[in-house]
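Q: What does the assembly look like in three dimensions?
Context provided by user:
Components: two
Sequences:
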Amino acid sequence: MSQNPAATPAPDQPAGAEILLRALKEQGVEVIFGYPGGAVLPIYDAIFNQNAIRHILVRHEQAAVHAAEGYARSTGKVGVVLVTSGPGATNAVTGLVDALMDSIPIVCLTGQVPTHLIGNDAFQEADTTGITRPASKHNYLVKRSEDLARVVHEAFYVARAGRPGPVVIDLPKDILIGPAPYTPAATTPHRSYRPQIEPDASQIAKAVALLKSAKRPVIYTGGGVINAGPAASTALRALVRKTGFPCTSTLMGLGAYPAGDPLFLGMLGMHGTYEANWAMHDCDVMLNIGARFDDRVTGRLNAFSPGSRKIHIDIDSSSINKNVPVEIPVVADAGRAIEAILAAWDTDPAEIDRPAITAWWRQIDAWRGIDCLRFTQDMTKGAIIKPQYAVQRLYDITRELQKKTFITTEVGQHQMWAAQYFGFDAPNRWMTSGGLGTMGYGLPAAMGVQVAHPDALVIDIAGEASILMNIQEMSTLSQYRLPVKVFILNNQYMGMVRQWQELLHGARYSESYTAALPDFVKLADSFHGVGLRAKSVDELDDVIREMISLDRTVIADICVDEKENCFPMIPSGAPHNEMILGPEHGTSLQIGGAKSLTDEGLALV
Amino acid sequence: MPTTPHQRSAIISVLVENEAGILARVIGLFTGRGYNIDSLTVAPVDPAANHSRINIVTSGTDMVIEQIKSQLDRLVQVYRVADLSMQGPHVARELALIKMVCKGADRVEALRLAEAFRASVIDATLESFVFEMTGSTGKLDAFIDLMRGLGLAEVSRTGVAAIARGTTTI
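A: Here is the predicted structure of the complete assembly.
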């Protein structure tokens, strides 16, 4: 049912491709990440004839989606992707699922064979709506010209409303060529999709009462706070400071609360801090804001925070009571819910139990005293670089230079070290593939961030294995003179795979060593960038400073300790209180480390 | 030690936009997340508003059934989701077409039972009948079981359509 039933195609109307671009402009689109092909040539022709929307030509469609994710995550806007039919669409699928898992708003335009050929196994035909149905928040196949503009507007609404996500619009070529009417974006609410934004006042009152009664509270925040916009992070800071309650964050939520603040316990979960995980395990009241009790956070479910009463704020009701039963569900936008809690806090006459909270902090400080992220860097000349030290120096130097810095990562050990040792003080500065864990995410994501923030320092903290999964985007970076810095923690292994093999498979390093790696310095050079290398600790600072000072695409190849593992670690299937601390603390993966390694745990990812 | 959570059956009615892909989306949700479908019916119910209604009979723990409802509710083309089995009294009916191929005493007995069960004969030849029968899933099951010994040849069932009793609407 069209919301503008008067709109019908007429021969004097512009082509569908023109109407598409007009709708994108009305939606405020400034940049499209894409790759041309037969089915989308009419759109490329329309792009050629205008200057309002910039097109960034990627080298692989997967990278187009990740770039749009980086753009979206760093700006709060919807990222836009344009790919052709068939392989263009199938290549985009990994990016779509990545955006789906991490709740990133994306509109992906895919070409399609003309409507009369659909289903005939035509050249470069794929059942794109069928393939992307479980890979997107929603998708559309535009079969009638009069639906085109409406569908585009609706797709942007669906992508950003409620829990954000990727939306696919499949565009048959005849729809793009034929005349189409224009309809402006609807001003009336969507007929069926109206996510709840405002929290229920009685649930907020119950939440406040429970929080005030807490003796050992913890605030556990996630990517939902980032997605709710900067105001939500501001409200979170106000709430944590008003209550004096400890705050921890998931991987996706880093930056919502400043890392350096004493009330922040660091990241929680599989590679989270000792204090954050113990606080989660021992707390009596848990306030989850915009996180989803992911298995990387909970560890073994039946041993997760056994003694706590739980409040869960989420805009997606299906995230509530999915993995962990909670007592007080609040379906709402994270920011609105925090603001409502702040308002109700002052009107509720109850006082918090200050002595109990003080005692709780004493306990937390004792856990903190373990200093779980401690490592030892040999500072003698020629000593091998510890990966943790490399990230720490990168953080220190960017802070000292006071540059507006955005960090993206690939997936693996380096990603966890980046999360542990790079302190994020602001939201939207940290782009990582959390849910899907997509190796090859970081470089194209950094590209999207740099397009959105041309003057900022954008660094992809990478591993030498992940970076090769989308290395072709070096070519895009040089084409658009995007001065992205690629900071490779090069240990020659798929480090996280190697670490798990050490832990679970008797140190049989099956296929996790990459022989014949490229020379990354020469590789940067061949892509018109600059390559740098640090082989020992005394070279590290100079390489970091030079990398940052260059207004060019740079690959810094940081040769790090091959054997280093990522700690602390909660092995899959273990509870929080059975965390392995690592050799700094006298435990290792093999020696008495993982108490509860079971066959069941082995089967988990 | 945790006890095995109680499994229950649920009839979930979903009012949806009658658009391409919605049925695939609902079924994909069930298969993708490992939920059971015991029966599923779908048909347009309000052509003017372009609404269709899907009735799903499923089973699971309370937590799983709540999940199913939430997962359905967040689909873009879904207007409303109701768990009729939890919402209060409701009626649930199924239609079956039952083909009998038999002669002699079996034929007489089948006809007599059909009358007792209020099944109607909608097609007949000298060697066959097609019965049409409407009722609860249990009643249909019982009748079909009785027919097995009397020359049951083929069964076609619609799956459950359900609606709340009284003035309550979805």
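Follow-up: Chain A has a mean pLDDT of 95.
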